[in-house]
Structure formats: structure tokens, C-alpha cells
Predict the structure.
Amino acid sequence: MATKNIELIAAPKPPHFVGDGFRVHNFIPSGYHLDMKRMDPFLMLDYNSKFHFSGTDTPRGVGVHPHRGFETVTIAYKGRVEHGDSAGGGGIIGEGDVQWMTAASGVLHKEFHETEWAKEGGIFQMVQLWVNLPAKDKMSAPKYQAIKNSEMKIVDLGENGFIEVIAGEYNSQKGPASTFSPVNLMNAKLKEHGKANFSFPPHFNTAALVIEGNILVNGKEKVPTDHLVLFENEGEDFTIEASENAIVLIISGEPLNEPIFPHGPFVMNNREEIIQAFDDFNTGKFGYLED
Ligand code: MN
């Protein structure tokens, strides 16, 4: 099998706030990193690198807003988030947990720091990834998967560390998330000098985000904390070695190769569907959610 080489190492861009609770570096889509097509089916990646929030009785976050046509996946590394949506989904995403929300035909939701955590404040670190839906599934029913850390598939790599599979598979071990198209999402939690090998089909769009520590990719290229590695669409195999204890989020998916027509919180296949989304939102078809 051929080596999958690095195409780009993307440094985090200056952060911006989403609402008042998420201080994020955007990696997808953006002018000088990756557009939606390049990382198809991954439409957006916002990364809240470690940031200290002071204690407050008024939890910070993002108020009620709609989504249609894709899924939002929130991966909590530090801190806790409370979520609620108009389809009745909701809950608390704690450290190590993942929330996989399928907006599909449309939900209203809100995302805030969990009340008790917000009172104390502390270090917050989180990833939000938007995964596109195939055209045939964009208007399916909304769904919510709360994936506790303990439900993830652990693949033990002995003295190297372990892989925590959220979706897709590693060494034929399958993660708990159900997806609409082939998506692999996993955390490599490696000890100092620990190594892991990965293999994905060449045409899958593949990236790795360094959450903790520094890594060496394919035995030669150093990638520091908070940087994203984009791999070429050639070759299958790459290795990651931790220079110190490391956490690396591995993202790989088969492109849908369908037209992408985004507008704000909606991602559809064409302009008519976006106009329909606004119409449906304005006429209350996304349901109701209290502020
Ligand atoms: Mn949202």
C-alpha cells in the first residue's frame, strides 16, 4: 500500500466568537485553508482551542437558531455543553462525549455551556464539525445521537496508547455513530513516542487535527498542537507518532460529489431548496423552541 502524504499543514486562524460561548478557529470552509468541496462531506470545522472562561450565573453560548440539510457533530474535550432542539433531542455533552445531531429536514436548536460548569468556569475545548447529507437524505427526519465516551469503541494499541472510534472503523472495529455515508471519526490518544497507523481509501477526504501534544507524521513532518493536517487524495496509509502525550482527531470520509449550495445555517443542493428552507423556517415548519 502506498503512503498517503501531507498536502497542507494549516495553522489555526485568529479566533472569532460564535455567540459568546465558543471561541473558535475556523479550518473549513475558509479562504486560505479548505473549502467545502475539498473536504466533502465535511462542510465546516470550528475548533475551540483551550480557552479559559470565567465563572458566571448566565451561561454563555448560542441562542435558538435553525439548521437544515446536514448534521452537526460536537466533540467535547474540556468543559460541558447543554443542548436542546425542537425535535425533542437534548442533553449534556460532557468531557470526552460526542453529540451527533442530524438536522436533516430541519431543527431549531441552542447550545450553551452547562449551568453548573458555567458557574465554576474553567478551560473549555471543543470541536464542531458539520457533516453533509446525501441529497436523498436531506429532508429525512431529524435525529439525535448522544454518544457517551464509555460507548465509544476502544482499540488498544498497547504501549502506544489507544484509538477511540466514534464513527466508521479502525482495524475493523466499528464506532457507535450511525452515518448516512461512509465517515470515519476517531480520537488517537497516544502516549509519548506512541505510534498509530491509519489506512483510508485514496479518494476519501482525510485530515487530522492535533488537539493535544505534538506529532510526527509519516516519520518526517512535525505538526504542532492546534494545527490541522490535510492529506493528499493519493495513497492509503499514514502514521502518526506522538512526540509527547497526544490527542489527534482523525477525520476521513467518502465525498458525496453532489452540488453544495450553502446559505447561513442551511446547506442544500440548489438555490430553490435554500429559498424553500427560508420559507419553511419563516412559516414555523421547523417547530418551536423556547429561548
Ligand atoms: Mn448550531
Residues 65, 67, 72, 109, 111 surround manganese (II) ion (CB under 6 Å). The helical segments are 115-120, 271-282. The two ends are 53 Å apart (CA to CA). The chain has a mean pLDDT of 96.
